[in-house]
Design a protein that fits this description.
By secondary structure, the protein is of the alpha+beta class. The protein is built from 16 helices and 34 strands. It folds into five domains: about 250 residues, P-loop containing nucleotide triphosphate hydrolases (Rossmann fold); about 90 residues, Elongation Factor Tu (Ef-tu), domain 3 (Beta Barrel), CATH 2.40.30.10; about 70 residues, Alpha-Beta Plaits; about 110 residues, Ribosomal Protein S5, domain 2 (2-Layer Sandwich); about 90 residues, Alpha-Beta Plaits (2-Layer Sandwich), CATH 3.30.70. This is Elongation factor G. Keywords: Elongation factor, GTP-binding, Nucleotide-binding, Protein biosynthesis.
Length: about 650
């Protein structure tokens, strides 16, 4: 079986392309996963094929990345509108990072939305590989009625519902065809000395030799050829499928590529797991592509026995099925197989670094609808995070509630639906409680005496403390300058412990940071003094001093790295400023052509707004990562509102 992925932005007709390709020589067999990855098995040219139709939303980019792990080649579907080229930037990025041979297919050419050369020029801004036209459109007025192949120099007229008809190259297309063919041959000659010599000697190379060269450079991933068509009308589908058949590399090349990227012995690499999902009453289903022979139910894979092998189309298990090298199959009761991963018979190897999904931007607390659901939620989220690497599961620091980081609102909605439909856990979501702190703005001194008489021994401790603001980021410090034994040395650790305990909650209701406490005097009683008494005196004294020290609210500030196509960089300054952030600068992203990395300091309370603004400004393409940087003072009405909200019943501290 040969396998390829079809990927690209939403609304570019990917699913239609797969449907038409699968129907060229018979009826395809389809299956799908809850995550939106659709699989189509079909036959073409007496060979078995499997097309992986990756979900289009940017929030599902991780599933497209994982599909490439199992693919000999891929088809990148793009719009025929030049201004929409930027929407393909994330896909060009992952295709090039993966090293997967790629054919770029400009779909919907029946809708005149711009010149093809402008589309290619706009896309080239995001591709390190040369995008090389293999066809040009034939126009009749504003309509595109066919295409001309630049290698064979044959022209084809589209016919609705039928194979295209061979025609002579129209006169109004001949000049453009000659120009585009010359450009094609010049680029191909960069990878073939014989062709370069033929061009220098002004000899016309035969078509079969050119096809062989173009096939080799695609298999070697030297260029990205560009084909055109309109899948909804079946136009260009046969040419696209023939290009895949003759030019996409065999499964052995994928095996070499994965072994090299994953630092695995090629001779031991048996399979790759690339997708998984949970089904009601079935459990975890793992999709695997065999990279060698000998796999069957019960065989050793990943260090344990392979579970039941299932047909993709009908989900039926068959112990007699023996997947051949290149076959794609599903397996259940193989929970030991992580996804994605490179698999030998005895071990599991981590996937290449390029499979790492974008950093999740949307943080939400999931609130279960009942106590029964609450007990199941944690375990279930752990299962789902194993099958969805775009999802991160944590616990909220202040409450211990289940915190999820999702790629965006669509991703979160799909997660909640899966929890309900598959695991029968109903949840609502809310934003996490922001982490605020407080400090003091001015120093103060306090004299606190703790005296208590009970039936037995009493309690006595007297402390004189100096409390002062520390420099930002220094945290809590304690020192002592007592002399003459007024506070015995064995009680000083208790004084420090009491001061630390007082820092747990300040006058505003938040944990206190960046404060220094000094014990400079005190008294003790030979009988009634104890560690508990001095700890209590210290705690109460520090609390009193904090209330006199002009408490100040502190908000968290995060250092953010925002990844965006360069055309959007100019808009970020205004976005960051509106969120009361600080622009630190930006650089070209050395790992992705046409992308920038924009750095800024963003208040923690504005991160949700940053995610929304970024999605809006970049059409859902941009994403950011964050790391805590520091706390800073927050004053005025905004601070007052936060303190009031924190004091309300039911608000987590």
């Amino acid at each position: 079986m040969r396998c390829f992925t079809v990927l690209g932005p939403s609304q570019t007709g990917k699913s239609t392309v797969v449907e038409k390709l699968g129907s060229l020589e018979g009826a395809p067999r389809k299956s799908s996963s809850p995550y939106g990855l659709n699989l189509t098995e079909f036959t073409f040219g007496n060979e078995a094929w499997c097309a992986l139709d990756a979900p289009g939303p940017n929030e599902a980019l991780a599933h497209a990345q994982h599909a490439l792990l199992a693919s000999d080649a891929c088809i990148l579907c793009v719009s025929s509108a030049p201004e929409e080229a930027v929407l393909a930037a994330p896909y060009l990025r992952i295709v090039e990072a993966s090293g997967t041979p790629c054919i770029l297919f400009v779909n919907r050419m029946d809708e005149p939305r711009g010149r093809l050369r402008d589309v290619i020029a706009a896309l080239q801004d995001y591709a390190n590989h040369t995008l090389l036209l293999r066809q040009i459109p034939i126009r009749e007025g504003d309509r595109i009625i066919g295409s001309c192949d630049l290698i064979s120099e044959r022209a084809w007229r589209y016919r609705e519902g039928q194979t295209s008809a061979l025609i002579a190259i129209p006169e109004n297309t001949a000049e453009r065809e000659h120009e585009a063919r010359t450009e094609l041959l010049e680029h191909l000659s960069e990878f073939d000395d014989w062709l370069l010599e033929e061009l220098i000697e002004d000899r016309e190379p035969p078509s079969d030799a050119l096809y062989a060269i173009s096939s080799r450079v695609l298999r070697e991933n030297r260029i990205i050829p560009v084909l055109i068509g309109a899948a909804s009308h079946g136009n260009g589908m046969m040419r696209l499928m023939k290009a895949l058949r003759h030019e996409a590399p065999p499964v052995g090349v994928l095996r070499q590529r994965l072994a090299r990227a994953g630092n695995v012995d090629e001779n031991k690499l048996t399979a790759v797991s690339f997708h998984a999902y949970h089904r009601q009453n079935v459990g975890k289903t793992v999709l695997v592509r065999a990279l060698g022979e000998g796999l069957r139910q019960g065989a050793s894979l990943g260090g344990s026995s392979l579970g039941a092998v299932q047909h993709l189309a009908n989900g039926r298990s068959n112990s007699a099925v023996v997947p051949a090298s290149g076959d794609v199959f599903a397996t259940v009761k193989s929970d030991h197989l992580p996804v994605p991963s490179l698999l030998t018979s005895n071990a599991v190897a981590a996937p290449p670094e390029w499979t790492e999904p974008p950093t999740p931007m949307l943080e939400r607390i999931l609130v279960p609808g009942s106590e029964r659901d609450e007990n199941k939620l944690s375990e279930t989220l752990a299962k789902l995070s194993e099958t969805d690497r775009g999802l991160t599961v944590l616990q909220e620091e202040s409450t211990g509630a289940q915190l999820v980081r999702a790629q965006g609102p669509v991703h979160l909605r799909d997660l909640c639906r899966t929890l309900s439909d598959v695991f029968h856990i109903d949840v609502t979501d809310r934003p996490p409680t922001p982490i605020y702190r407080e400090t003091i703005a001015k120093p103060s001194e306090v004299h606190y005496r703790h005296r208590k008489q009970t039936g037995g021994a009493g309690q006595f401790a007297d402390v004189k403390l100096s409390i002062r603001p520390n420099e930002r980021g220094r945290g809590f410090t304690f020192s002592e300058t007592v002399k003459g034994g007024v506070v015995p040395r064995n009680y000083i650790p208790a004084v420090e412990a009491g001061a630390r305990e007082a820092m747990e909650k300040g006058p505003l209701g938040f944990q206190v940071i960046d404060v220094g406490v000094t014990l400079y005097d005190g008294q003790h009683h030979a009988v009634d003094s104890s560690e508990h008494a001095f700890r209590t005196a210290s705690k109460m004294g520090v609390r009193q001093a904090l209330s006199e020290g002009s408490a100040v609210l502190m908000q968290p500030v995060f250092r953010s790295e925002i990844h965006i196509p360069s055309i959007y960089s100019g808009s970020l300054v205004q976005i960051v400023s509106a969120l009361k952030g600080q622009v630190l600068g930006f650089d070209r992203d050395e790992t992705a052509k046409g992308w920038d990395i924009f750095r800024a300091l963003i208040p923690g309370g504005a991160l949700d707004d940053l995610a929304r603004a970024l999605r809006s400004a970049t059409q859902g393409i941009g994403y950011f990562s964050k790391t805590f940087d520091h706390f800073e003072e927050l004053y005025g009405k905004e601070a007052d509102a936060i303190v009031r909200a924190h004091e309300e019943p039911g608000v987590a501290h």
